[in-house]
Amino acid sequence: MIFTSTRNNSLQVEFSQAVRACLPKDGGVFVPSAAGFEDLRRWIYYIDKDTTFTSIAGTLTSAYMKNEFSPIICQTIAEKAFPFSPELRQLDDNLFMLELFHGFTGCYRDFGVSYLCSYLETTHALYGGSSVFVDFTHGELGALLAKVLRDKKTIKAVLVYRKGDVRGLEPQDFIWNGGNILPVEMEGSEEEIKANIRKLFEDSDFVAKHNLSLANTTNVCRLMAQVFHFPYAFAQIKHKIDGDVFYAMEGGNYGMLIAGLYSWRFALPVNGFYIPATASLGVNGQGYAQMLDSFVKRGERGEANPVVPANLERLECFFEDNELMMRHFVFPSVVTERSREKAAKELFMKYGVFADPGTASAYASVVERRSAEGQAADDDSALVIVSQNHPSLSSDYCRHVTGEVPDMPENIALTLKPVRLERPVVLNSDELKTIITTFL
Hints:
The chain is of the alpha/beta class. The protein has 18 helices and 15 strands. It has helices spanning 15-21, 41-46, 53-65, 71-81, 109-127, 140-148, 190-202, 204-209, 220-225, 229-237, 255-265, 311-319, 323-327, 337-351, 357-372, 395-402, 410-415, 429-439; strands at residues 2-5, 13-14, 30-32, 87-92, 95-99, 131-136, 155-162, 181-186, 212-213, 245-248, 272-276, 281-283, 289-291, 330-333, 382-387. The strands form 4 sheets. A 6-stranded mixed β-sheet has the order 4-5-15-10-11-14. It has a 4-stranded parallel β-sheet with strand order 8-7-6-9, sandwiched between helices. Helix 11 (255-265) links the parallel strand 10 (245-248) and strand 11 (272-276). Helix 7 packs across helix 18. It is globular. The model has no long low-confidence stretch (mean pLDDT 93).
């Protein structure tokens, strides 16, 4: 599969080049070439409820890397990455919920990060080399990487926290104890810390010397792992439905939305995506999706910020000014706090489902959109709500909305355990460079 850049479609690289480079040099981000998608219609017809998640991930991995790795290696990458799987719940005749929180830390990112690490470890074992992630984290990503990297030999992570935010790590994880995690506390706000990490990545010589990379969806490998969820959901429900298939999801940084659109490019039956409207991807006067950034040409913008994934730019590249196409796939609607709470209560009262704010917003976007258009749900169409995070991570919200609190699994509780580093606090990107040079 060939990958190109959002700023230069004449750039043509293989999957491995896109992953290792992480960012193209033209200021954009890597995306699959429109001509590079394999038509998997026959395979989609074949998969069913008995097809495992790792089988689906292995087949798509082979589609990503068919010119680079054998199907056996691709399947190995998937099996090592996913000792867990999404779960598909049927709530009503044509209403389903895809739960992505049954991994290491109860968060959807478990899938993408684990897949990225499995891919890198496999390629390093075959061809040599190593990788070092440098990422900002509130704590969740750090706890996840600590878990994923415990058995890895060629990947380390420098995790930058606000002072006092370190959690979910154990002494064995620390690089000074022989582990793979270098936790760093930095003074300043989240915005200031991210600016320092961005400055670090602007030093291309330093990045190359230390093999620095990113574990967020700026890295196209982590993004492409999210594509697996959609054919898996379809395989689970295809024998139960006769009509169209729609997905509802929270907005976030739009990584899940662009992954769903990529799954459609592989010929997966998808009829549209419901999302809450935001300032970046909102609703115009006619009720259609509108991306405000599109008013500034991509070539006239500043370089993509590696710390803040540019998935909105990937969406622009996907639709390439084709407003008609976007209207038929993306259905945003304004979700208020009141409508979100109403949706959360409905999910709980009707189906016994605790919904975190993101899941409640996803469901509310469907209710609001259909209400605004004066239409009822089509009896033949299926709706899959994508639930990205375990509701226990939003216990206060669940208590406020439902009066009850979901149980928190032990593996999630451990990720929230505070950690005192008792190490010097870093002040800027130069001090961060010094620490990286000292320990790596």
